[in-house]
Design a protein that fits this description.
Largest sheet of chain A: 7 strands, mixed
CATH topology of the largest domain in chain A: Alpha/beta knot
Oligomer: homodimer
Helix content of chain A: 25-40%
Number of helices of chain A: 12
Structural class of chain A: alpha/beta
Strand content of chain A: 15-25%
Largest interface: A-B, 38 and 38 residues
Distance between the termini of chain A: 65 Å
Number of domains of chain A: 2
């Protein structure tokens, strides 16, 4: 057992977790964890910040996330399984009082668990290897230039619900490890295969694997439900503000749109993606 | 021309707008406007707060919104038509400097227009009259117990895009005039017929008008695309956290669910509603 400024090390035998107890926000370790909410700190540390029992559980179950620290505050726990999860993950555990936890949390109602974890590979080389090994035949989603973390997170959550396994994010205007992507995805960022690259490279891999690229754009006359969405397809969506990239606009195999009524000039990006992904399900399942 | 503390009254002949100029946040008029972001102040004043060129334009075009004040800050304008809109609306105009405007705004990037307007009728009596006069045959959306303003706003925006005219909000856990409902709806709150009531009363009116109530719940075995969504139907969705109310759970004509894969246990409420509304379009339009 050792002691240093603002820290207490203790082994809690009862719960089987050994943890460091920190009670001051000026502690360097806490500052480093809290800083990971910002992109520049994530990039220099190669670590990201994830919060919430559900998200951490799913990151752990995915097998692809290597944890560094696990911050916990039992006063905030909402369930019964938090301690078991901390034990199972085996990362360096740090106990903090509720007030301190709330200061580090980015949620309105924190549930007492925050983790830091190492970046995992999201490059296209990794994607290509995985894709070829798996001889993927599942539909794939391509999201270009996405700007809003909440939108990307919702897209990932919906993609998982719709049975998609792979989401390729092309030239995004956000950081994939943004805590709001993780939150809105409810952890689907970990359970899905999510990769990052340039549209041109993504198209090249998809074409090599005999995928049809089907791009959604309001100018297309064909409606999405009149398109054949079976087989090896990649659905391609452009950014909230600018739509499809020039490359996708001229290199996709087919184009279609969603019907739009009233004074609405567009749907939310995540909504459009969800509607078309569920049409893929319908075409595959309907009797 | 008159002058009082912190206010200057001027007639800008060039633009044809007469306005009051206020430069101090401690001015009572500004405080009253800013307060309308909070429910208690909206309720005691019978007024709501709406921000943004697009939202104010759509509120004006709807014909159902009676404006009180129009706060503007030309330094924040993003377009060319703001002055014309202020002139056309003819509400009491108040000019404020950018810094003051940003203080009152609830947006990250304010576009220089904020209005206050009188509540418009959203009760079921008004709905019933309108419904019977119109001999409505269009599909209707019923949203029960909704908690998140952003969800309701997104639902309204999507409902408009999907060609729905009427959204009935049953026993919500939010205020319909919450600025975040208006923002996420991009103004669809004004262009659609949106009414508020209790599920039981809503069902009673729908049944009198020979509408079928089709409720979405994860326990139902039937999938939404296997249901007949043509004709006079009301799609019913429960709250984010609790799902359908006990009344809707036992008094609807049919029940169905959305298929769900992976570890996802649910979709976002707005997403589910959007997916099913677009299936209504597909069944009506597909060749």
């Amino acid at each position: 057992m050792y002691l240093c400024i603002g820290e207490t090390f203790a082994l809690n035998d009862e719960q089987g977790i050994s943890y460091l107890e920190i009670t001051s926000f000026s502690n360097e370790k806490l500052k480093n964890i809290s800083n990971l909410k910002e992109k520049k700190h994530r990039e220099s540390a190669g670590l990201f910040f994830l919060e919430g029992y559900r998200e951490i559980l799913r990151a752990h179950k995915s097998g692809k996330v290597r944890f560094q620290n696990l911050l916990f505050s039992p006063e905030c726990f909402l369930g019964e399984n938090e301690t078991a999860l901390i034990r199972e993950i085996g990362a360096k555990a740090i106990k903090v009082p509720k007030k301190l936890f709330e200061k580090i949390s980015y949620r309105d109602r924190p549930d007492g668990l925050i983790a830091t974890a190492h970046f995992f590979p999201i490059d296209l080389d990794t994607f290509q290897k995985k894709f070829q090994t798996h001889r993927n035949k599942k539909p794939v989603l391509v999201i270009e230039g996405v700007e809003k973390p909440g939108n990307l997170g919702t897209i990932l959550r919906t993609a998982e619900g719709a049975g998609f396994h792979t989401v390729l994010v092309a030239d995004p205007r956000l950081d994939l490890f943004n805590p709001n992507v993780i939150r809105a995805s409810t952890g689907a960022l970990f359970s899905l295969d999510v990769f990052l690259g340039e549209t041109e490279n993504i198209y090249s891999i998809l074409q090599k694997n005999e995928y049809r690229t089907l791009a959604v754009t309001p100018e297309a006359k064909k409606l999405y439900f009149d398109a054949d969405l079976k087989g090896k397809i990649a659905l391609v969506f452009g950014s909230e503000q600018y739509g499809l990239s020039p490359y996708a606009r001229s290199h996709s195999d087919e184009y279609f749109s969603l019907p739009m009524y009233g004074e609405a000039d567009s749907l939310n990006l995540a909504m459009s993606a969800g509607i078309v992904m569920y049409e893929v399900i319908r075409q595959g399942l309907q009797k």
